[in-house]
Amino acid sequence: MEAPATNHEVRIPGLTQTDEDGLYEIRLESLGGLGAHLAGKMLAEAAVLRMGLNGAHFSSYGSEKKGSPIKSFVRLTTADRELRTSAPVERPFVVAIFLDTLLKAPGILSGLRPGGMVIVNTTMSPQEVREALGYEYDTVACLDATSIALEQKSRVNTAMLGAVAAMVPFLDVARVRDVLAATFERKHPSIIESNLSTFDRGATEITVDRRDTAPEGQTVVGTSPALGYLNAPIGGVVANPANTVAKNLSGSRVGYLPVFHQEQCIHCGLCDMVCPDNCLAWDIIKEADGTWYTQLRGIDYHYCKGCQACVETCPTQAMTKEREIPGFAEERRVPLDWSPRVVDGARYREPDTADIKLS
Ligand code: SF4
Ligand code: SF4
Q: Which domain holds residue 156?
C-alpha cells in the first residue's frame, strides 16, 4: 500500500534546530524527589496539547528512590511528523541539570549537540559552571532554583520548568504556565499560586552566557569512567566488600543539608537516633574524677543524605535546614573518627574550657 503523503513544510516559529529525523530533544538530569519527571510531562503536554506539536516523554528512574539519579526525556517535532521512537535521548539540544552536585556525574553532558544549551540549578555563575564541566562552547544558563523553591514554598521542578520554557526558543512560556496551573488545579489546588510564582521566577531569574557553537565532536564532556572493560585489571580484587565507609553519599542530597549550631545543642542524642546513617560525630569528654559524658561535635557530610530527620527531631533548633552551596559541606565537615574507639564509636578526648557539661 502506498504510504500516505506527509507534509514536512510545517514551520514552528523558533524551531530552527532539529536532528536528522526532524526532532528536538531535551534531557532533564535530576535526582529522585526533585520532580523532573513531572516537569518533563508538563513540558510535553504543553507542546502537544496546547502548541500543536507532536511529542513524547518518558523517564528512566534507575533504582527508583529519593536521591538516586533519574533522567527525563522529552522529544518534540512538528505535527506532520510521526514520532515513534521511545529510546533514551542521547543527542539532546538541551540538558537541564536539576542540581549542581550532578555536574560531577560522568557523562552529564553526554551527546549534547553543537548549538545546544545547558541549564543548571546552581548558585554558581555560568563561568564557574563551565569550569566545573570543562565546557567552553554554546549556551550555559544558571538559576538558583532551590532558593526560589525554598522562598516560594514549592519545589525545584517548577522553577526549572520555567527556565526551560523560557530558554527553548519555540516554546510558549504562557502555554507551559497554563499546563502547570491546570495540573495543580486537578491535584493540589492549594499550592497553585506558590508554584506559579516559582515558575515565573524560574523563567526570569536566569543568568545566560552564550559563546561560539561547539565544533562537531567536541560536545561530549567527561563521559568515560576511569576503568572499563578495556583497561580494568584482570583478576582485580574488591578490597572492601560490603563496606560503605568509603562511599560518599553527598550526591543523594537534593539541595539542602542540615547545619549544626553547637551553642544551641543540649547533646540529647535524638538526632543520632533518627539519622539513617552514621553521620553524627560525637566526643566523649572525660572528667578528672573519671566520669564521662558525650558531646555532639558536628556532622560528617560525607555520609549525610540530607533527609532532614535530624532537623525535624531536634528539640532546640540546633539543627537547621539550609540551602547547600558548593564547598560548604567540604568546609564544615566533621569527619567521623574511624580509629579504634574507646566507647560506643565516639572519639575520646580530655575536656577543655569550652566544653558544655550535662547536669
Ligand atoms: S537533637 Fe539537637 S539538641 Fe539533641 S544532640 Fe542532636 S543537635 Fe543536639
Ligand atoms: S540530614 Fe540529618 S538525619 Fe538525615 S542523613 Fe543527614 S545527618 Fe542524618
A: 24-210
Q: How far is ligand 2, taken at its centre, from the CA of residue 280, in Å?
A: 8
Q: Are 143 and 165 in contact (CB under 8 A)?
A: no
Task: Give the number of whichever ligand sits closest to the CA of residue 265.
Answer: 1
Cα-Cα-Cα-Cα dihedral sign, residues 89, 92, 98, 100:
positive
DSSP conformational letter for 203: H
234-262 pLDDT, tens digit per residue, is: 777 766 666 677 777 887 888 889 999 99
- pTM metric for this prediction: 0.78
Q: Which of 148, 178, 210 is the last residue of a domain?
A: 210
* Same-domain status, 45 and 173: yes
Q: What is the CATH number of the domain that holds 158?
A: 3.40.920.10
Which of 274, 308, 314, 334, when mutated, tests ligand 1's pocket best, judged by the most ligand atoms within 8 Å of its CB?
314
Q: Among residues 189, 210, 231, which one ends one of the domains?
A: 210
**142 C-alpha to ligand 2 centroid (Å):** 28
Q: Give me the residue label for grid cell 517535532.
A: 77
Q: Measured from the CA of 308, which atom of ligand 2 is nearest?
A: 1
